[in-house]
Amino acid sequence: MTSNRAQHLVPATMVLLLAGVVAWLSFTREPAGAFLFPRLISVFMLGLAGWNFARAALGLARVGGGLSAGLLLRVMPGALVMLLYVFLAARWLGFYAASYAAFVIIYALYDPASHASPAAWARRLVIPAGFMLVIYLLFNTLLKVQTPRGIFF
C-alpha cells in the first residue's frame, strides 16, 4: 500500500467506523419515534461512508495532497470550538443557544472582514440567527426531534 493510498484509506476507515457507531446508537435508543430522523440520517451517512471506504480501498480516491501543517493550524481553532460545543456547550446552554454561539464564533474566526466593522458584526450575528431559525423550524416544528436541553432552551 502506498502512502497516498493509506492517506485516503485511514480517514475513510475512521469515518466508516464513526458512521457505524452513530447508526448503531440511533437504532438501540428508545423511544423509537424520537429517533426516526437520526435513524434516517445515520443510515444515509453509513451508506456514504461505505462508498467512500470502498473507493479508498480500491484506490479510486485520488483527490487531495494531504494535510499540511499550515492548513492544520488554520483549521484547529474551528475544531476546538466544535469540540467545546459538542462536549460542553450543547448540554449546558442547550442545542439552539450553543449552536448559535458556535456559529458566531466560527464565523468570526474565519470571516476575512474586519473585526472593527459594525456591518461585518451585524452579518456575523444576523446570518447565524437566520440559520438557527430555519434549524429550529425544521427540527422542532416539522420533524419534532428532541434536541439537548440546557439553561436557555
State the main characteristics:
single chain; 153 residues; mainly alpha; 75% helix
How would you describe what is shown here?
The protein has 153 residues and is mainly alpha-helical. It has 2 domains: 1-66; 68-153, no CATH class. Helices cover 75% and strands 0% of the residues. The protein has 5 helices and no strands. It has helices spanning 3-28, 36-57, 69-93, 95-110, 118-142. Helix 1 (3-28) packs antiparallel against helix 2 (36-57), helix 3 (69-93) packs antiparallel against helix 4 and helix 4 (95-110) packs antiparallel against helix 5 (118-142). The chain is flat, with a radius of gyration of 19 Å. The N and C termini lie far apart (50 Å). The mean pLDDT is 87.
SSE topology:
Layout: H1 3-28, H2 36-57, H3 69-93, H4 95-110, H5 118-142
Helix pairs in contact: 1-2, 3-4, 4-5
Q: What can be said about this structure in brief?
A:
By secondary structure, the protein is mainly alpha-helical.
> How much β-strand is present in the residues?
under 5%
Q: In angstroms, what is the radius of gyration?
A: 19 Å
Between the first and last Cα atoms, what is the distance in angstroms? 50 Å
Beta strand count: 0
> Helix content range of the residues, please?
over 70%
Q: Give the biggest beta sheet.
A: none
**What is the averaged pLDDT score?**
87
Structural class by secondary-structure content: mainly alpha
| N-to-C order of helices and strands | HHHHH
**Basic shape:** flat
Model regions low in confidence, pLDDT < 50 over at least 5 residues = none
Number of domains: 2
Task: Enumerate how many helices there are, as a single number.
Answer: 5
